[in-house]
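User: Can you help me understand a structure? I only have the sequence.
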Amino acid sequence: MLPAERGHCWKQPNGFYYPPAFHSNNLWFSNVDIRHFVIEPLFLPIKPLDTDPFQQDQTAVNNRYCTHSTDMFSASFNNIDRQTVLNDDDGTLTGLQGSKGGTNYESISINEDPYFNAPVTTSECLSDVGVIPKANPIPFATATTSPYEWLSTAIIADCAVDRKVECRADNASPTMWAHDCGNSSCRGVPLYREYLTEAEFPGARPQIRMMGQDTAQRSTLSLNQGKYYIDTTQDCTTQGGCPKCTQYKPNGECETYENRYRPSVFLGGHTYYVYFVYATAKLTAPGNIDATHQTYDIYVGPGTNDAELNVKAVTVDPNPPYKFGTPSDSSYIKPVHDNYYDGKSLLSIDVDLSGQLAAFTASKPKFCKPQRYCTPKGDSCVCKNPGSGCNDADCAWGPNDIDCPIDPNNQNGMLCFGFSFTMPRNFTAKPLAPADDLFVRYTTNDYFLKDVTFANGKSISPNDQCVYPPF
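Assistant: Let's start by predicting it. Here is the structure, written out as tokens:
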């Protein structure tokens, strides 16, 4: 991102999911009241058994915005529009960098949304007028600064890969997992954050809906070291309805449905793939590997076993038509307990990519592009001809946050790490609230007890309002 003298506003809704790989550096703001303003959809809090997650909070809209239309957000906004994220490499956007163990790194600018609450966050400086360090009382902010690492978690059904199928038994059957999940006609897959802050505990049940563009996958931002619950219990009723196709294209794809809703219903006997984009394993110091580590609980119902659930480590090429494979090393997934299945209703999987450093390291040079100007140097990327007007910093962005390791057999393909599971054959989706004992304090995880905090950012412009006192 180029240096700027004026503030920046994200346009939403936009149908585009902002991945955690956008970086800013060396920004200059002079005489501005707002640096980074994000228009956010204001929905009523979602309860576990709510059938419509996109109900506009009219009171909040009236208090926050000049426009007070009753369908300002409910008509077109959705959970994709809750995921604006930027990496602030030097603190010149937010005023802060992340810090752990004496090492400083980028901070994250993320939506001011309760779902993204974590132990150490703060309102982003000048994300609205008057939002400055230590402002008391804190005025409205539109973004949060976070010192943690975020990635994208995605899920897709085996039967949804083919556009001509869309998870239906035949052409006369309703669609159970639609391709398009990019607007409020799709309720998405509920993903609950199990770790709660001290202010949220007990009682909070923070969730977001995994959604996506017209490619059959559902995805969302997730917190490294986080713990999540994938709700598989939503049925056609809570999804607005599972429509039948009323008109087909010549190639066999559906052209017209009997209603506007696009469901995401989990079906017995079908396999689902969970995979991770912008996950990482990197060497931060000799003997110290910083890697993605998360836990996932998935409702599969009572009366099954590990063999029927058939949990496997998989690789996924995240680009349609998708390709699924078997990794050479499957040790990155483990049962949370002695088994994947708890004997009652939950499938629990621990994902730890710390053993996959070699795959990420070997792939980074492949992201050194454009090849005409840039060339690999170690695990970084520099100019081929420094005297040609190219700057090493321009090339360094390529391998900074790679999507997924490169497929060694196909340099144009990727192999995202993930896992698959098969729903029990007798499973029938029926709405059920997640168990209360899943939700615990962040501080039950040692990672969040460590010294993860903020460091002061870099001030470039004179009289900078976003200069923080030492934390």
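Now, to help you interpret it: The first helix runs from residue 58 to 64. The two ends are 27 Å apart (CA to CA). Let me know which part you'd like to focus on.
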